[in-house]
Amino acid sequence: MPRPDNPRPAGIPLASSAERMEALRTRLGGFAFGGDYNPEQWDRAVWREDVELMRRAGVNIVTLGVFAWASLEPEPGVFTFEWMDEVMDLLHSAGIAVDLATPTMAPPAWLSQKWPETLPVMADGETFGFGNRLHYDPSSPVYRERAAIITRALAERYSRHPALAMWHISNEYGPTAYNAESSVSFRAWLQREYGSLGALNDAWYTRFWSQTYTDWAQVDVPAVPRSWMNPARQLDFKRFVSDALLECFVAERDIVREYRDDLPVVTNFMRFYRNADYWKWAREEDAVALDIYPNPGEEDSWVSAALNFDLMRSLKGAPWVLMEQAASAVSQWKVNNVKRPGMMRAGSYQAIAHGSDTVLYFQWRASRGGHERFHSAMLPHSGTASRTWVEVEAFGNELPLIKDALGATSRSDIAVLFDWDAWWALTETHGLPRNEFDYPQLVTDHYRPLLEAHHGVDLVSFDSDLSGYRMLVIPNAYLITDRFIAELTRFVEGGGVVVCSFFSGVVDEVNQVRQPAYPGGLRGLIGGYVDEYWPARDAETFGVRFDDDGGSESTADWWQDSLHAESASVRAVYTSGLLDGRAAVLENAVGDGHVVYLGTRLEPAALARVLTGEAERAGIRSLVPDAPAHVEATLRESAGARFLFLVNHSETDAATVALPFAGRDLLAGTDVEDALTLAPLGVAVVRAQHS
C-alpha cells in the first residue's frame, strides 16, 4: 500500500464540486454501480471471492467502512488498519474504486463506556444506550473530538491510496439529543440568530403564559412538554438540530479536504427526513446522495420515490448519487415484500431517469447476523444461484449501454415548493386548527397529478430563484418567509402561474400570525381573505361546482376556508354545507400572471384537473401526453444529446407510448420512430435521432 501523504501542499487550488464529480465520472467511465461493502464482517477467505463476483457483475465502486469504527479503532487511539489496507489494495488490483466512509455514525462500545455523556438523552429524559446506532449527542465535545481523531487517521493513511475515489462522511445523520451540552449549544445558536435576549423574547412571543427569559441560562432544549410547548421555541429547536448535525458533517469534511481536495465529499440523505434541512446541507456537499427504500408491497410507492428523486436533483440542480437501495426485500416494514422480478431494474432506471449518475445498494453481501440479516443484498445468502443475483448481474452488465447519458441534466417548467421550515412549522408545533397535517403526503398529493401527466417537475425552497419556471405549486405552506413573498410576487407579475392550497401564508419566520387577516402573507396575491378556518368533522364532505364550460361538479373534504373574494374572481363555489354558495376556489390576476387559490381539499381527480389545466394554460406541454399514468417519462439532456427515459410501473399491463421524437432505444439496440411498447415493468432509454 502507498505510504501516507502529508496534508495538501500550500498553493494547490481547490477544485469545484462540478470538477470533482466530473473527475469521478471520467474515472469510472460510466454510471457508478456497486454498494456498501463490509468485509470486516467476513473472514479473509471470502474477500477474493467477493472481488471476483464484483467484477463479474460489473461493479466499479464500493463504499467501505460505514460501520467499521470498532474494527478500525478497537481501543482509544489504537488503530488496526491492516485489514483495510488489504481490502483497499485488493479492490484496486481489480479496478474497483472505493468510496471511503468515516465510521462515526456507530460509535464503539469503549466510547460509550469511557464517556457516557456522549450518549444522547431523549426527549423523555431517558438515555439512548449502546447497542443500536446513532447513539451520540452531536453537540458533545467528546464525541466531536473522537470523530475528528478517527477521521484524521483515515485521511492520513488513505488520502493518496489509488483506490480512493470519493469520501463518504458518516451515514444517515439523525440523532436528536436533549443533553446538557445540547442546551449549551442551543443557547449559542440562539445568540447567533437573535443577538439579544430581548430579540429572542420578541420572536418567541414569550409574554404569552409568562414565558419571558431574563437570563440566557434559563433557555434550554425543549424536552417532552407536560402541557403544550411554545411553537416558536419548538421550530427553532428543529432548525438548531439540523445545524448541529451539519456542523458534525462539515468538521469531518474539512479534515479530509486538508489532505486532498480533488475528490467528491458526500453524505447520504434519507427519504422525507425531517431532522435535517437538506437545502442547507446540499450547499456543503459536492453532490447530493440518497438512501431510499420504496415499499414493494405498495402499488404506487414509485410516485413517492419519483418525488424524492426530483427533490435530490433539485437540491443542487445537478446529477446526484443513489447511495443506497435494496436489491429486493428490506427488513424495516411490518411485512417485507420482495421486489418482484423486474422491479429492481425498473426502480434503478427510474432513479437514473430523474438525474442519478449512480446505482448503489445496501449492501454487497447479505449479513449473517445483526438486525439487517434478512435485508436483501446484491449477493444474497443463497449466492449466485438466487434470482436476485441473476437480476443484479444482468443489470450491472446492461448499464454501460446508456453510458452516454452520464452527466446529462434535466430542466422543468413546473416547480413544487418543498421547504423544511414549512414542514416543521406545520407538523412539529401544536395549536393549529388541525394538528394532523402530513406535509410529505400533501406535497406528494400535489406532485402526483403532474408526474402522471408526464410533466417534468423541480422542487424549490423559500430561497430558490423562481425566474426559470412558468408554473409554481404551493402545497399548504402555513409558514412563509418575507423573501419568498417578494420572490413570488415578482414571479406572478412577470407572467408566472401559481396554484396555492389552503392554510398557506399564515405565519412568518418566527411562527407569528401575519396581519391583517388570514392569509396575511398572501392576501394580496390570492385576492381575498379568510375570516375563519373550518376543519371538517369526521366523514364530512362538501359539494364543489366549478365555473367552467360544463359547470363540473366534484367533492371536497377535511378543510374549508371561510373565504371572501376581494380582487379575485370565484372559480368554484360550495354546493352543500354551511358555506353553500360561498367561494371554494379563487383566481386572481397579478400583473401578467395569476394565482389560483384552493380553499378546501379537493378530491384527487378535481385537484388533478386544476393542476394539469393550469399547466396547459401556461403553455407547458406534456412529454408524452397520451401515455398511461403508470408510465413514467423523463428527459435528460447534455450537449448535443437528448435521452427519453420511459418506465412502465405496472406489473401486469404492457403499454404503448407515442414518442415525441425518433431515435434509438439504447437498451434494446433498435431504432424507434413513432411509438414503442413497454412490457410490464419494462424500460426504454431513447436517444434522440437529431438533437
Can you characterise this structure?
The protein is α/β, with parallel strands linked by helices and 691 residues long. It folds into 3 domains: 283 residues, TIM Barrel; 56 residues, no CATH class; 204 residues, Rossmann fold (3-Layer(aba) Sandwich), CATH 3.40.50.880. 31% of the residues lie in helices and 20% in strands. It is built from 18 helices and 27 strands. Strands 10, 11, 12, 13, 14, 15, 16, 17, 18, 19 and 20 form an 11-stranded mixed β-sheet that branches. Helix 6 packs parallel to helix 9 and helix 15 packs across helix 18. The two termini are 47 Å apart.
- Give the low-confidence spans: 1-7
Helical content, roughly?
25-40%
Mean pLDDT: 95
CATH class of the largest domain reads Alpha Beta
Structural class assignment:
alpha/beta
Shape: globular
Short note summarizing the structure:
By secondary structure, the protein is of the alpha/beta class.
Task: Give the SSE layout.
Blueprint: H1 17-28, E1 32-37, H2 44-57, E2 61-64, H3 69-72, H4 82-93, E3 97-101, H5 109-114, H6 141-158, E4 164-168, H7 180-194, H8 197-204, H9 231-259, E5 265-266, E6 268-270, H10 278-282, E7 289-291, H11 301-316, E8 321-324, H12 343-353, E9 358-361, H13 387-398, E10 414-417, H14 420-427, H15 439-452, E11 457-460, E12 471-474, H16 482-493, E13 497-501, H17 523-526, E14 528-535, E15 541-546, E16 553-565, E17 569-574, E18 583-590, E19 593-598, E20 600-602, H18 604-617, E21 631-638, E22 641-648, E23 655-658, E24 663-665, E25 670-672, E26 675-678, E27 683-688
Parallel strand pairs: 1-2, 1-9, 2-3, 3-4, 4-5, 6-7, 7-8, 10-11, 10-12, 12-13, 13-19
Antiparallel strand pairs: 14-16, 15-16, 15-17, 16-20, 17-18, 18-19, 21-22, 22-27, 23-26, 24-25, 24-27
Helix pairs in contact: 6-9, 7-9, 11-15, 15-18
